[in-house]
TrEMBL record, chain A:
It is an enzyme of class 6 (ligase). It comes from Arthrobacter globiformis (strain ATCC 8010 / DSM 20124 / JCM 1332 / NBRC 12137 / NCIMB 8907 / NRRL B-2979 / 168). It comes from the Bacteria. Residues 351-498 form the Asn/Gln amidotransferase domain. This is Aspartyl/glutamyl-tRNA(Asn/Gln) amidotransferase subunit B. The gene is gatB. One of its GO terms (molecular function) is asparaginyl-tRNA synthase (glutamine-hydrolyzing) activity. Keywords: ATP-binding, Ligase, Nucleotide-binding, Protein biosynthesis, Transferase. GO terms for biological process: glutaminyl-tRNAGln biosynthesis via transamidation; translation. It catalyses: L-glutamyl-tRNA(Gln) + L-glutamine + ATP + H2O = L-glutaminyl-tRNA(Gln) + L-glutamate + ADP + phosphate + H(+); L-aspartyl-tRNA(Asn) + L-glutamine + ATP + H2O = L-asparaginyl-tRNA(Asn) + L-glutamate + ADP + phosphate + 2 H(+). The keyword Protein biosynthesis applies. PROSITE patterns: GATB (PS01234). Heterotrimer of A, B and C subunits.
Automatic annotation (TrEMBL), chain B:
It is an enzyme of class 6 (ligase). Allows the formation of correctly charged Asn-tRNA(Asn) or Gln-tRNA(Gln) through the transamidation of misacylated Asp-tRNA(Asn) or Glu-tRNA(Gln) in organisms which lack either or both of asparaginyl-tRNA or glutaminyl-tRNA synthetases. The reaction takes place in the presence of glutamine and ATP through an activated phospho-Asp-tRNA(Asn) or phospho-Glu-tRNA(Gln). Keywords: ATP-binding, Ligase, Nucleotide-binding, Protein biosynthesis, Transferase. Belongs to the GatC family. Pfam families: GatC. GO terms for biological process: regulation of translational fidelity; translation. The gene is gatC. Its EC number is 6.3.5.-. SUPFAM superfamilies: Glu-tRNAGln amidotransferase C subunit. Heterotrimer of A, B and C subunits. This is Aspartyl/glutamyl-tRNA(Asn/Gln) amidotransferase subunit C. Residues 75-98 are annotated as: Disordered. It catalyses: L-glutamyl-tRNA(Gln) + L-glutamine + ATP + H2O = L-glutaminyl-tRNA(Gln) + L-glutamate + ADP + phosphate + H(+); L-aspartyl-tRNA(Asn) + L-glutamine + ATP + H2O = L-asparaginyl-tRNA(Asn) + L-glutamate + ADP + phosphate + 2 H(+). It comes from Arthrobacter globiformis (strain ATCC 8010 / DSM 20124 / JCM 1332 / NBRC 12137 / NCIMB 8907 / NRRL B-2979 / 168).
Length: 502, 98
C-alpha cells in the first residue's frame, strides 16, 4: 500500500480549519454484563464468562443491569448532561462474527444522557469547552483474532477465532458535537479531551479506565474546511485510537492527510481509517456503504428505562468532586506555583501527595519527597510512582527524623532505599544500616581539626571573614564521617573553633 | 399503493443477507406493499394525539441486581459451534474490521 501524501502541519493550518468529533467508548466495571449475569472480567480463559444471553441463543431474555444504568447516569451527570425522563434500547443490526446475535443492543433515538459539556484545560491553562451530544448505553462485542495469512491482520487472513467473554460487557458511548475553533491546537485538544473523559470515569469509579486494556477507546473524526467557510468538509473516522498519545498523533496526521487531499483538488472520501502506532499513520478502512444501514428498531425484549428525578438526584449526591475542580482546590491549599503544580500533575503523584499531607507532612515536604526522591526511582524501575509501594507514613517518619536532626537528607535518601528494599520501617533501616547522624561533638571536632589542618589556606579565608569558603571544610568533615555528620552542627563548630561570628 | 418496489426489496434482502430469486423479489414487492399499507392505516387511525409506542405493555425499569449468576464452560459454549479451535469459535475470515 503506497503511503498517503501529507502536508506539513503548519501549512495545513495556514490553509484549513479543522473540525473534530469524538466517540469515546467506556467499558463499565460492573461485576456482571449489561444484559446477562455472566461475569464482566478481563483476561479469563476464552468463552468461559458467557451464558445463553451472551451467545445470542434463541428464546433467551436479556435483563438490564441496574448498576450499569446507575453508572451511565453518573457519567451523564459528570458530563453536565440532561438525563432522559424515559429512554429505550434499540437493535443495531449488522452481520459480523463479533456479535453472535447479528445485532448489538444499543440506544438510538433515546439516549439516557444528552446535551452536556466538558471544559477542557489545555497545557497552558486555556479552557476549551467541548459540547457533548449524547452518552448512551450499549454492549461490547466479542474479540476476534485473525489467523493465517500475514500476522494478525485481517488482510489475507484465512479464518478468525472468536472469544465472547467481552460480548455483553456494559459500554457507555460518549459522542461530542462537532468541535470547531480549536485551530492548530486540535491535536492537543483531542488528547486533553480523551484524558479528561478517562479521568472522569476513573474518578467516578465506574470504569477501570485502562486504555491499554481497551476500557476507554476513542474513534476520532476529523474534517477540514477552508478558513471562513461554515459548511463542514467531509470527515474521516479513525477507529480505535487507544492511547492518549495516539489520539494526538492520529488527529494531527489526519489533518495533514486531508490537507494534501484537498490541495490536490480531490474530494476527501468519507471512510473509516485504521491507526498504525508503528508508522504513526492511518490507512483506509472501508468506505461508507449500504452495510452501514443498521436498520435500528426498538428492542422488543427490553422495556423502557425511566429514571425518576429522585433517583437521578440520589445519584448526583454521590458524585465525587470533579477532577478539574479538585486540582484547583489542591493547588490553592498547597500553595504550589503553577510550574510546581503542573509538574506534580504530569508526574502523576497528585493522590500520593494528598495522602502524604493527610498523614501529617507539610505540602512542601510532601512535594520534595515525591518529586525529588520517588518519581526518579519510579522512572528507573519503569513503574508509576504510586506503584512503588511507599506509604505516606514512611515519608512522614523520614521527614520527622530529618527535622529532629537524627538523619540528614542524604541519609534519608539511603533510608528510603532501604525501605524500598524491604528492610523495614525507616527507624529499622536507620538501625540496621547504622545511619544515625553523629551528634556527639567529640568525633566531629576531631574531623574538623583534620579538615582545617588539611586546608590551612581555606581556614585563613574563613578567619578573614570569607564565610562562603566554609563549604570546603564542611565537605571534608562530611567525607571523613561518611556523610553521617549533621552539616548544620559541623558549621557551628567550625566557626566556634576559628573564633568567627557568623 | 405504498412506496415499496422491487429495488427496495432487493436492497433489504442484501442487508439481511437473504438470497432471493427474481420471482421471489416480484412476489415480496407486492406482499410487502400490502403490509406497509396496512400499517399505514393503523397510523392514520391513531391520529396526532397518540404518541408512538414501542412497548405496548405498561412496564418500565425492569432491572437485575449486579450479581454474578451462571456461566457456561468453554466446552458447553462451543458445543453447538460448526467449528472451533483453542476454545474459541472458528469462523471464516470476513473482510471487515470491528
Amino acid at each position: 500500500m503506497s503511503a498517503d501524501a501529507i502536508l506539513s502541519f503548519e501549512e495545513a493550518m495556514e490553509k484549513y480549519d479543522p473540525v473534530l468529533g469524538f466517540e469515546v467508548h467506556v467499558e463499565l466495571n460492573t461485576k456482571t454484563k449489561m444484559f446477562s449475569s455472566a461475569p464482566n472480567v478481563f483476561g479469563d480463559e476464552p468463552n468461559t464468562n458467557v451464558n445463553e444471553v451472551d451467545l445470542g441463543m434463541p428464546g433467551v431474555l436479556p435483563v438490564v443491569n441496574k448498576t450499569a444504568v446507575e453508572s451511565s447516569i453518573k457519567i451523564g451527570l459528570a458530563l453536565n448532561c440532561k438525563i432522559a425522563e424515559s429512554c429505550r434500547f434499540a437493535r443495531k443490526n449488522y452481520f459480523y462474527p463479533d456479535t453472535p446475535k447479528n445485532f448489538q443492543t444499543s440506544q438510538y433515538d433515546e439516549p439516557i444522557a444528552y446535551d452536556g459539556y466538558l471544559d477542557i484545560e489545555l497545557e497552558d491553562g486555556t479552557v476549551f469547552r467541548v459540547e457533548i451530544e449524547r452518552a448512551h448505553m450499549e454492549e461490547d462485542a466479542g474479540k476476534l483474532t485473525h489467523l493465517g495469512g500475514s500476522a494478525g491482520r485481517i488482510q489475507g487472513a484465512e479464518y478468525s477465532l472468536v472469544d465472547y467473554n467481552r460480548a455483553g460487557v456494559p459500554l457507555v458511548e460518549i459522542v461530542t458535537k462537532p468541535i470547531e475553533g480549536a485551530g492548530s491546537r486540535a491535536p492537543e485538544l483531542a488528547k486533553a479531551y480523551v484524558a479528561a473523559v478517562r479521568e472522569i470515569v476513573k474518578n467516578l469509579g465506574v470504569s477501570d479506565a485502562k486504555m491499554e486494556r481497551g476500557n476507554v477507546r476513542c474513534d476520532a473524526n476529523v474534517s477540514l474546511r477552508p478558513h471562513g467557510r461554515e459548511r463542514f468538509g467531509i470527515r474521516s473516522e479513525t477507529k480505535n485510537v487507544n492511547s492518549l498519545r495516539a489520539v494526538e498523533h492520529a488527529v494531527r496526521y489526519e489533518i495533514q492527510r486531508h490537507a494534501a487531499v484537498l490541495d490536490s483538488g480531490e474530494p476527501v472520501i468519507q471512510e473509516t481509517r485504521h491507526w498504525h502506532e508503528d508508522t504513526r499513520t492511518t490507512t483506509s478502512g472501508r468506505a461508507k456503504s449500504d452495510a452501514d444501514d443498521y436498520r435500528y428498531f426498538p428492542e422488543p425484549d427490553l422495556v423502557p428505562v425511566v429514571p425518576s428525578r429522585e433517583w437521578v438526584e440520589e445519584l448526583r449526591a454521590t458524585l465525587p468532586e470533579p477532577p478539574a475542580e479538585r486540582r484547583k482546590r489542591l493547588k490553592q491549599d498547597w500553595g504550589y506555583s503553577d510550574l510546581e503544580f503542573r509538574d506534580v500533575v504530569n508526574a502523576g503523584v497528585l493522590d500520593e501527595i494528598e495522602e502524604t499531607i493527610a498523614a501529617g507532612a507539610t505540602a512542601s515536604v510532601a512535594r520534595k519527597w515525591w518529586m525529588g526522591e520517588i518519581v526518579g526511582r519510579a522512572k528507573n524501575a519503569d513503574v508509576d510512582p504510586g506503584q512503588l509501594g511507599i506509604e505516606p507514613a514512611t515519608i512522614v517518619e523520614l521527614s520527622r527524623m530529618v527535622e529532629a536532626g537524627k538523619i540528614n537528607n542524604k541519609m534519608a535518601s539511603a533510608v528510603l532505599d532501604g525501605v524500598l528494599a524491604g528492610e523495614g520501617t525507616p527507624a529499622e533501616v536507620v538501625e540496621k544500616r547504622g545511619l544515625a547522624v553523629v551528634s556527639d561533638d567529640g568525633p566531629l571536632l576531631e574531623a574538623i581539626d583534620a579538615a582545617l589542618a588539611a586546608q590551612p589556606d581555606v581556614a585563613d579565608k574563613i578567619r578573614a571573614g570569607k564565610l562562603q569558603a566554609i563549604g570546603a571544610i564542611v565537605g571534608g568533615v562530611m567525607k571523613a564521617t561518611r556523610g553521617q555528620a549533621d552539616a548544620g552542627r559541623v558549621k557551628e563548630l567550625i566557626l566556634e573553633k576559628l573564633g568567627v561570628n557568623a | 399503493m405504498a412506496a415499496i418496489n422491487r429495488d427496495d426489496v432487493a436492497h433489504l434482502a442484501r442487508l439481511a443477507h437473504i438470497e432471493m430469486s427474481a420471482e421471489e423479489l416480484d412476489r415480496m414487492a407486492g406482499e410487502l406493499a400490502v403490509i406497509v399499507d396496512a400499517v399505514k392505516s393503523v397510523s392514520e387511525a391513531a391520529g396526532d394525539g397518540v404518541p408512538a409506542t414501542s412497548h405496548p405493555i405498561p412496564l418500565s425499569n425492569v432491572f437485575r441486581e449486579d450479581e454474578v449468576g451462571h456461566t457456561f464452560t468453554a466446552e458447553q459454549a462451543l458445543s453447538g459451534a460448526p467449528d472451533s479451535d483453542a476454545d474459541r469459535f472458528k469462523v471464516p475470515a470476513i473482510l471487515d474490521e470491528d
